[in-house]
Structure formats: structure tokens, C-alpha cells
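Researcher: Sequence recovery benchmark, item below. Answer with residues only.
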């Protein structure tokens, strides 16, 4: 069944806690600044015994930009075995693994700290450093860490939303569809504060192409699961959903929409940025004390990287970075621009979502005549009808019941305005009302001289 037009189901699970922002500094390790000795520290011998390529061969594979390097280089086993030997302790794991891999270099290696988004010590591998890593597969791990970190660091959802938020023109939106005080069907001009945020979330994970609800969108490349663009987009969506979840129970006065909604969105975006910072901290070795409640990293991984059929993942969150590194994330260039396009489009989705809510508050509903031929559908109803999938759909104002052919309750002005000015895909709007009339009031009528009829309120 298609999703309801304006009550979007978010394709991920919400957590029950809101995350707090971590401090803007890297974690000071509780471990001594010495490498963890693993398998006698001599990783080159160990990897050779296990049949992995030599460090020199791995560095050549890296220079040649070969594929699937995390697995083929031995980096996959290196992370896994080191984490097991270290007792699955994630605190400061990036720095400790770095010290372990550079122990044989005989030089001061400095810090590799990536727990804060403003870190000065989360740097990519230096030129020619591959041969100094033992095993050289750590170079793959180091590069993957930096790709994910830099991608998260590039996100400022408040900045990305500033322009589309200013372009909403909420005063016009309200006056276009609400003219008189008695237009309110239930005399309660309020909407849940979470509703616009759910519209934004639906826009981030919108149906594409002909299935969409908005006809004019910024051209965006669909991020494939397992790519760095998908990692960024789904992380933002996840952290935005957590921010939205924490705001349940609040309401927005529709009569003050232009004032209250921007304030609400700005606050939610601030919380989203805080959530991204907290997630970054935990992912790269920060302690759980940096947030109000522990962050479940495996839940995060399972959401942004859905399990394939027959796959069963280990539940220990120490393996969360391991699963992400398996994606062999490479360049992240352009991902911020891709995200910007998605954010801009999500505001357009939110706008049509708000229109749907105004429709509902005014008591607008849809009638579906399955027997009415195309010509009559197009000529009747004063322009409030569309012929879709072999049936005639009509947008009507208040009442419902048997006002099926009464021209006085048609709503052509609202339908045409939504289509022409706000780019609502009217055909898909009617399909969604037909398929997912989820307020429970859809009624099936017999023919009774006028054919099969279904009634559904706009929701």
C-alpha cells in the first residue's frame, strides 16, 4: 500500500531518549599512551602466517586504488582481533589502534583524535606513511575513519535549512487556504509540533520519479546504500528523527504559523546538530558519559545499513565501526552538495504536507466515483476533479456523505492552487488518499443508481 499523502511513515525506528551535545574537545584517554600489544606485536609475521598480502603488497594495492581493500588487506581482521584482545573497550579506540599500528615505526606518532567535530588532530594519513603502518591494512582503516568523520563534520543542518526556510513564505501559505475564521472545521486551529518535522523526514527519504508528491524538485543523485553519500544522508535523517521524537506533545497555532514554525524548526535543527556531534563522539571512541543516555551504535548501523537476507550481525557495538568500514568509503566530495539538494526538497515536501493539514482542518475530503467516465469527470465538478486510474476523484468541502454531485461543495480553487502554485502532484495525492485513508472513516457504498463510491477524508 502506498504511504498516506500527508501522514508519512518514517522508515526507521525512533529511540526514546534525546541525545545531548558532547563537549567540544577530544577525549583525554584513560589508557596509557602506549600501544596495545596484540599477537606479540609482530603483525607482519602474523598476517603472513594467515596468508594475507605483505605490507608492501598492501601499500601497492592502496596506491593502485584497488577495490575491497578493507577485507583484502587484512584490515578487517586487524580491527576485529585487536578489539577482541582489547576486551571490546571502545573508549579512545581510534587513538589506541593508531598507536598499535605505528609501534614499529620508532618515531613519535602524535594523536589521532576524532571524537569532537572541531578536532584538530583527526587528520588523514600523510603521504608515504603506508609503509610505516604495521599492518599496512591500518592505512585503510585510517582512511575510512577520516572519510566518515569529514563527512559528518561537513554537516550543519541549520545552515543547510536557512535558505529554504526563508523561502517558505508561511504567511502566504496560510492566507491562500484559510480565508475566514469559520473556515476551521473543528474550531481548533492547531497542529502537532512534530508534524512538520515528519514532513521534512519524508522529504529526505521521498519517493522518486513519478511516485513523488511534488512535481518540481532539485535534481539529486539517489545515494546508494553503502556509499558515503548514503551514510551522510541517513545519519542526518536518523539524528533529525531523534530530535523530532523528543518534541512530542507540543502544538503550533496555525494562526501564528509564520512566527511559530520557523522557531520550532530552528530549535529542532539545533538538536539535530547536537545529536550528530554526540553520535560522532561515541562512534570514534568517546565515552557514553558525553550524552544523557548511552547511544546504541549497532541500532544506528542496522538502520543506515539494512541487513541482507540471511545475514545476522553481531550485537556488540564495538563492531559498529567494523561494519561501517566494510563499506570501503572513499571520497566524500560532493556529498555536502547532495545533502543540500535533499534538504531543499524536504522543505517542498513539508510545504505540501502543511497544505494537506490545512485541508484537513477545513474538513476537505475526497470522493471517488469508479463508474464515472473520463469526459464527464473532466466536465463536471468545476475543475475540482481529476481522472486517475480509471476513476473520477473530486476534492470537496466539508460535510461528506451523499453530496456526491452537488457543485456547491466542490473545491476547485484549493485543488488548482495546490497544484499550480505549490507543485502538488494531484494525481498521486488522490492515489494516496484512495489507498491509505488511514483515519478509519473510509466508507464503501453500493451502487444505488450511481455506482460504486468510496468516501475518504484528506489526512
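Model:
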Amino acid at each position: 500500500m502506498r504511504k498516506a499523502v500527508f501522514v508519512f511513515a518514517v522508515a526507521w525506528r525512533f529511540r526514546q531518549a534525546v541525545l545531548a551535545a558532547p563537549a567540544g574537545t577530544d577525549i583525554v584517554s584513560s589508557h596509557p599512551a602506549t600501544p596495545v600489544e596484540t599477537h606479540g606485536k609482530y603483525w607482519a609475521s602474523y598476517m603472513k602466517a594467515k596468508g594475507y598480502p605483505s605490507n608492501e603488497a598492501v601499500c601497492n594495492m592502496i596506491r593502485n586504488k584497488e577495490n575491497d581493500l578493507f577485507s583484502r588487506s587484512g584490515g578487517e581482521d586487524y580491527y576485529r582481533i585487536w578489539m577482541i584482545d582489547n576486551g571490546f573497550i571502545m573508549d579512545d579506540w581510534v587513538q589506541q589502534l593508531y598507536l598499535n599500528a605505528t609501534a614499529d615505526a620508532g618515531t613519535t606518532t602524535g594523536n589521532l583524535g576524532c571524537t569532537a567535530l572541531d578536532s584538530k588532530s583527526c587528520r588523514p594519513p600523510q603521504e608515504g606513511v603506508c609503509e610505516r603502518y604495521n599492518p599496512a591494512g591500518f592505512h585503510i582503516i585510517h582512511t575510512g575513519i577520516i572519510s566518515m568523520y569529514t563527512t559528518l563534520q561537513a554537516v550543519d543542518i541549520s545552515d543547510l535549512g536557512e535558505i529554504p526556510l526563508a523561502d517558505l513564505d508561511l504567511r502566504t501559505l496560510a492566507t491562500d487556504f484559510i480565508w475566514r475564521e469559520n473556515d476551521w472545521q473543528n474550531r481548533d486551529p492547531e497542529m502537532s509540533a512534530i508534524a512538520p518535522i515528519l514532513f521534512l523526514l519524508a522529504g529526505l527519504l521521498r519517493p522518486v520519479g513519478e511516485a513523488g508528491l511534488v512535481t518540481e524538485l532539485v535534481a539529486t543523485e539517489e545515494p546508494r546504500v553503502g556509499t558515503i553519500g548514503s551514510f551522510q544522508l541517513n545519519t542526518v535523517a536518523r539524528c533529525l528523527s531523534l530530535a523530532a521524537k523528543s518534541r512530542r506533545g507540543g502544538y503550533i497555532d496555525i494562526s501564528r504559523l509564520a512566527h511559530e514554525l520557523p522557531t520550532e524548526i530552528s530549535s529542532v535543527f539545533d538538536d539535530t546538530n547536537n545529536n550528530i556531534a554526540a553520535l560522532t563522539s561515541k562512534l570514534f571512541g568517546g565515552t557514553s558519559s558525553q550524552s544523557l543516555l548511552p547511544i546504541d551504535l549497532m541500532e544506528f548501523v542496522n538502520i543506515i545499513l539494512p541487513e541482507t537476507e540471511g545475514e545476522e550481525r553481531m550485537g556488540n557495538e564495538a563492531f559498529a565501526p567494523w561494519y561501517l568500514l566494510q563499506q570501503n568509503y572513499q571520497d566524500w566530495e560532493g556529498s555536502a552538495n547532495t545533502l543540500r539538494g535533499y534538504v531543499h526538497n524536504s522543505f517542498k515536501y513539508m510545504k505540501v504536507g502543511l497544505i494537506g493539514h490545512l485541508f484537513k482542518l477545513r474538513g476537505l475530503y475526497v470522493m471517488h466515483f469508479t463508474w464515472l467516465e473520463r469526459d464527464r469527470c473532466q466536465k463536471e465538478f468545476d475543475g475540482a476533479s481529476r481522472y486517475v486510474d480509471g476513476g473520477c476523484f473530486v476534492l470537496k468541502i466539508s460535510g461528506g456523505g451523499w453530496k456526491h454531485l452537488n457543485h456547491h461543495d466542490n473545491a476547485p480553487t484549493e485543488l488548482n492552487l495546490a497544484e499550480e502554485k505549490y507543485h502538488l502532484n494531484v494525481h498521486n495525492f488522490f492515489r494516496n488518499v484512495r489507498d491509505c485513508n488511514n483515519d478509519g472513516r473510509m466508507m464503501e457504498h453500493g451502487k444505488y443508481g450511481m455506482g460504486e463510491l468510496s468516501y475518504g477524508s484528506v489526512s
